[in-house]
């Protein structure tokens, strides 16, 4: 009976916190405008309760279950009494001593009796300063305080005082009223756990910093791309049957990276579901603008000189991507075929999952594709063979130097490290040996893989995804869509399956395997509660709206 009393107390605190959070103004209405990034909670007590419940089940399967369960109960109570109500942590740009802007942290949360009691032991009895009705003190290099049902902390004194001044009635721009934040949040909606990022504002801060070190031209393409990303808001809300997510990205069409804006806002009518096998374990379909290859190729060219193995130069990958854009359409899909989940757990072969991974791309000019693809595949495969030789050479040079030092100093640790390097090199060589770009056509789609086994599986024929009853029931829109994803309820995993993901030294030792058995059983239970997911992305003007639903048995 005593085990149920803390649970009842926690539930009461969470319920009271959730009710209180709905009767007050949002914290964003008091924070200064100009946040680069925020992490937010809004009535998140149900989310904490469900997540902590899942963690408790996992810990209950180990020897730490009893003690850890009590600790989780305390943590859940504290979070429910603060962040479970409402909380927001933001990174803001403040002006530094030399005039350049630099990031600073400001975090605020609502508090209840439990939170106030804990904070009473951490904050000084006498506050160091006061702004209106709100007091704060310096605590270990930070500025923190608790007043009028709020707890606040900042790395910058002026930033905290500006916030407290707004709370005290001073008229000044606030985060909630700023156009970038309001537009993104309005499109995404309020979520239990949320994030907001202002990439355009971050780009301005970065430009200010780069101007101090005289490197604006060298990194200007990166900053231009960041500026074009605009603003993003999104988050998740838990439900009795899993959770839902919603996001909105407001693309900055005034940004200098115009090609990126076109790529981000691309939409198409999808037909790839008519050629993907119905047995696929996961599908991620995207509207990919024909200029995507050329755009990616330009970025590869910029980093080519920094790539240590010479693969980009040898494969001429940037050039081939640009040429492929001449015959590829607006439709791409990355597909994990049947058996992909278990293949990814194979620690013995890190590339085993490639045997179940294929890509689909719509072809608009078959003659151009037939003319280009043989040279494309040959160039990539020759570069992969060259990569094997480069890795062997670099490993041998390093290992020879290490072994020479080890023999001179009679250092057993260096000898063991040298042996480990030799084993790792051999394993990498075996993996690269089986890596080969292969392709085929099915209808209007080019299928590409790095494993002949995967390509053969994609070409087997049989039922297709578009005719699958569960897929049709998901109700995904294929017209004028920016993208969608679909993952059916996967086959259950066993503890033994998860043991395969551990290094051989652990999974092969009986004593260690016994220690991990309980944890793996609990982990398998958590994973098997996942029953699939669907997501949809659409474009409205310059806003990309994403929604997803995840089925999970809490």
How many distinct helices? 20
Structural class: alpha+beta
Largest sheet descriptor: 18 strands, antiparallel
Distance between the termini: 23 Å
Instruction: Estimate the helix proportion, in percent.
Output: 40-55%
Low-pLDDT stretches are 1-23, 414-421
Rg to the nearest angstrom?
28 Å
Mean pLDDT: 86
Envelope shape: globular
Number of strands: 18
Beta content: 15-25%
Structural features:
554 residues, alpha+beta, 18-stranded antiparallel β-sheet, 20 helices, globular, disordered N terminus
Textual characterization of the structure:
This protein is of the alpha+beta class and 554 residues long. Helix content is 45%, strand content 23%. The chain has 20 helices and 18 strands. The chain has helices at 4-21, 45-60, 65-80, 113-120, 157-167, 179-188, 199-213, 216-228, 258-264, 292-303, 311-315, 317-324, 340-343, 366-409, 412-433, 452-458, 469-473, 495-499, 504-507, 510-528, and strands spanning 35-42, 86-95, 101-110, 129-131, 134-139, 142-147, 150-154, 193-198, 231-239, 242-250, 282-287, 328-336, 357-363, 438-442, 445-449, 483-487, 530-540, 543-552. The chain has an 18-stranded antiparallel beta sheet, sandwiched between helices. Helix 1 (4-21) runs parallel beside helix 3 (65-80), helix 7 (199-213) runs antiparallel to helix 8 (216-228) and helix 12 (317-324) packs antiparallel against helix 14. The radius of gyration is 28 Å and the shape is globular. The model is unreliable at 1-23 and 414-421 (pLDDT under 50). This is DUF3352 domain-containing protein. Keywords: Signal. Residues 1-21 form the signal peptide.
């Amino acid at each position: 009976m005593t085990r149920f009393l803390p649970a009842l107390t926690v539930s009461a605190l969470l319920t009271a916190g959730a009710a209180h959070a709905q009767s007050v103004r949002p914290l964003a209405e008091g924070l200064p405008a100009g946040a680069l990034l925020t992490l937010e909670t809004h009535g998140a007590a149900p989310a904490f309760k469900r997540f902590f419940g899942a963690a408790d089940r996992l810990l209950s399967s180990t020897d730490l279950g009893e003690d850890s369960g009590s600790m989780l109960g305390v943590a859940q109570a504290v979070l429910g009494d603060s962040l479970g109500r409402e909380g927001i942590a933001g990174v803001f740009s403040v002006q530094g001593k030399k005039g350049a802007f630099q990031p600073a942290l400001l975090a605020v949360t609502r508090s209840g009796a439990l939170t106030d009691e804990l904070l009473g032991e951490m904050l000084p009895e006498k506050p160091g300063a006061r702004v209106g009705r709100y007091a704060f003190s310096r605590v270990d290099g930070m500025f923190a305080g608790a007043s009028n049902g709020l707890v606040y902390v900042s790395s910058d004194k002026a930033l905290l005082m500006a916030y407290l001044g707004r709370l005290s009635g001073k008229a000044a721009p606030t985060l909630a009223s700023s156009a970038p934040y309001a537009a993104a949040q309005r499109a995404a909606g309020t979520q239990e756990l949320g994030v907001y990022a202002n990439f355009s504002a971050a780009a301005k801060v970065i430009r200010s910093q780069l101007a101090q070190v005289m490197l604006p031209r060298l990194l200007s393409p990166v900053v231009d791309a960041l500026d074009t990303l605009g603003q993003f808001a999104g988050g998740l809300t838990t439900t009795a049957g899993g959770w839902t997510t919603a996001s909105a990205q407001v693309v900055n069409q005034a940004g200098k990276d115009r090609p990126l804006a076109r790529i981000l806002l691309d939409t198409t009518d999808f037909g790839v579901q008519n050629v993907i096998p119905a047995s696929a374990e996961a599908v991620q379909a995207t509207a990919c603008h024909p200029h995507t290859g050329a755009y990616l190729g330009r970025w590869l060219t910029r980093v080519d000189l920094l790539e240590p193995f010479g693969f980009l130069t040898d494969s001429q990958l940037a050039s081939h991507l640009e040429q492929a854009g001449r015959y590829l359409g607006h439709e791409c899909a990355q597909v994990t075929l049947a058996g992909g989940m278990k293949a990814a757990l194979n620690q013995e072969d890190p590339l085993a999952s490639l045997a179940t991974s294929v890509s689909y791309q719509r072809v608009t000019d078959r003659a151009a594709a037939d003319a280009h693809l043989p040279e494309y595949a040959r160039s990539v495969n020759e570069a992969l063979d060259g990569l094997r030789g480069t890795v062997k050479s670099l490993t041998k040079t390093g290992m020879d130097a290490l072994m020479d030092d080890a023999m001179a100093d009679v250092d057993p640790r260096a000898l063991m490290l040298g042996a480990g390097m030799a084993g790792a090199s051999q394993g990498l060589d075996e993996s690269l040996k089986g890596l080969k770009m292969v392709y085929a056509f099915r209808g209007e789609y080019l299928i590409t893989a790095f494993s002949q086994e995967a390509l053969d599986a994609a070409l087997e024929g049989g039922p297709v995804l578009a005719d699958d009853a569960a897929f049709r029931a998901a109700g995904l829109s294929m017209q004028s869509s920016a993208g969608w994803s679909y993952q059916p309820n996967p086959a259950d995993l066993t503890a033994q399956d998860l043991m395969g993901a551990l290094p051989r030294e652990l999974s092969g030792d009986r004593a260690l395997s016994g220690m991990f058995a309980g944890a793996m059983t609990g982990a398998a239970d958590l994973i098997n509660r996942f029953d699939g997911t669907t997501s949809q992305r659409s474009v409205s003007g310059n806003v990309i709206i994403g929604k997803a639903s995840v089925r999970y048995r809490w």
